[in-house]
Amino acid sequence: MRLRTVDAFAVRPFTGNPAAVVLLDAAVFPDDSRLQALAAELNLSETAYLHPLSDSADADWALRWFTPTTEVDMCGHATLAAAHVLGGDGLLDEDGRVRFRTRSGVLGASRDADGSLTLDFPTATPVPVPVPESTREVFGADPLAAWDTGPLQKLVLEFADERTVRDLAPDPAAVAALPAPTVVVTAAAAPNGSGAGEREHDFVSRVFAPAHGIPEDPVTGSAHTALAPLWSQRLGRAALTGLQVSRRTGEVRTTLRGERTLLTGRAVTVLDAELLTGL
What we know:
Blueprint: E1 2-8, E2 17-23, H1 32-42, E3 46-52, E4 61-66, E5 71-72, H2 76-88, E6 97-102, E7 105-111, E8 117-122, E9 127-129, H3 135-139, E10 145-148, E11 154-158, H4 162-167, H5 172-176, E12 182-188, E13 203-209, E14 214-217, H6 224-235, E15 239-244, E16 250-257, E17 260-265, E18 267-274
Parallel strand pairs: 2-3, 4-6, 11-12, 13-15
Antiparallel strand pairs: 1-2, 1-18, 3-4, 4-5, 6-7, 7-8, 8-17, 9-10, 10-11, 12-13, 13-14, 15-16, 16-17
């Protein structure tokens, strides 16, 4: 069985967020325990499994995502990686599009003229909530504000500036004790040093998900479905560029379209391997 590792939201290898992509021949998924075992073996933030749909009018492939410890409801970077693999195998439609049936409904992806890929995801409108009392102890800095993201199950914390976000060094166990399985930290981008106040990106973020076996996620597409409406409202523009300032870093371009958010990025295949044991 063929397995590809793809760096998503990346323009060169060993940046962005790596995801494993496994295209299954059968029209059903193997047992969940086997899917979870392989995801744990690969130990990437997500492994994406797909099988073709021959009897569906609204989707082309069934898609599931597993971290090393659990199945998740939504994953942006592994969806981008899956679309990248399908494109390389000539399995997108004649318009360069594909539709995935997932636990979060039908999600679309398309290949753009410049070779980048755009995901069509539901917007996760952030709702203001009180800042949890323990956040200063966890992060060593005081957030300015906090937001709940509803079904996305992510807590968003805004900090004073980009440097603060870059310097955060929370203990994973302390993060896991916060009232959300995933914590997104964000701030407005710092000026790029030109003296004119211009920015190469509009906002920065980092994402911590130790409850899912991911101390820090390198680049998180799904988090940008909440960051896009937050920063679009703040900055007064529908189209923005976010930079996730993890060690690997990655750029996500966002376009807010009401109840849908478009996430655009590039991907690079870094490994093409054969799985020697069946699922």
